[in-house]
Write a structure and sequence with these properties.
alpha+beta; Beta Polymerase, domain 2; five-stranded mixed β-sheet; 8 helices; globular
C-alpha cells in the first residue's frame, strides 16, 4: 500500500527504522530479516521515490512477533495470509510511515530475486542506522525488480548511483536474464552500468 502524498527521504527513513528497531529489539533479536523495497535503495543512498518500509522475514511467526512488538502503533493490516501474493503480511503506521512486514512463500533456487529464494538472504549489506546495522538487500536485486516492473523513475536513479559507486554486473546480468528481460533492454542496462560518472 503506497501513500504518494508522503514521500520518504533518507533522514525520515532512518528515524523511522530506529524507532521500529527500538521497539522490536531485543525481543525479536533472533529473527532474521531483510530491508527490501524502495526503502532499501534509499538506505543505500539512492534518491528515488519511496513511500513505505518493507521488512522481509522467513516465517509467519516472525511477522506475528514483530507485529506484537509494534502493538504500540496503529495497525493498518492485522497479519493475514494473502493467497494470491503467497505472503503472510501485516502493516503498521510508525512515525507517519507505513511499515510492512511479510513473508514471501515461493520456492526457487534462483539467487537473483529480491524478495524470495536465496537472493535476499545471500546478497545483502549491513548498513549502519543509529545503533543498528540494518541487513539491507543488495541494490543489484532491487535494480532487477525495478527493471522487471519497468519503472524508470526508480531504476534510473539506481543505475546512476551504480555508475558512480560500482556494482556486481554479473549478478545483474544473471538477474535480468532470469527475469526474461528482452536482450536489447539487457544490453542497454549493461552498457549504462559500464559507464562511469565524472565527479
Amino acid at each position: 500500500m503506497e501513500h504518494p502524498e508522503s514521500t520518504l527521504n533518507e533522514v525520515w527513513l532512518r528515524k523511522t527504522l530506529i524507532i521500529v528497531l527500538n521497539h522490536i529489539m531485543p525481543a525479536c533479536n533472533q529473527i532474521a530479516y531483510r530491508l527490501v523495497g524502495t526503502g532499501a535503495a534509499l538506505l543505500h543512498g539512492v534518491e528515488l521515490p519511496s513511500t513505505d518500509i518493507d521488512i522481509l522475514v522467513k516465517r509467519r511467526e516472525d511477522v506475528d512477533a514483530i507485529g506484537a512488538a509494534l502493538s504500540w502503533f496503529k495497525c493498518l493490516v492485522t497479519p493475514v495470509w494473502l493467497p494470491d501474493a503467497r505472503q503472510y503480511y501485516g502493516s503498521y503506521e510508525v512515525n507517519g510511515v507505513e511499515v510492512e512486514i511479510s513473508t514471501v512463500e515461493i520456492e526457487t533456487e534462483v539467487d537473483t530475486i529480491e524478495t524470495f529464494g536465496r537472493g535476499p538472504w545471500e546478497h545483502f549489506t549491513p548498513i549502519p542506522c543509529g545503533p543498528y546495522a540494518v541487513p539491507t538487500v543488495a541494490l543489484e536485486l532491487r535494480l532487477i525488480t525495478e527493471l522487471f516492473r519497468n519503472r524508470p523513475e526508480r531504476y534510473e536513479p539506481i543505475i546512476c548511483y551504480m555508475q558512480a559507486k560500482g556494482c556486481d554486473i554479473d549478478l545483474i546480468h544473471r538477474g535480468m536474464d532470469t527475469a526474461g528481460l528482452p536482450q536489447a533492454a539487457q544490453e542497454k542496462v549493461l552498457e549504462q552500468l559500464k559507464e562511469k560518472t565524472i565527479n
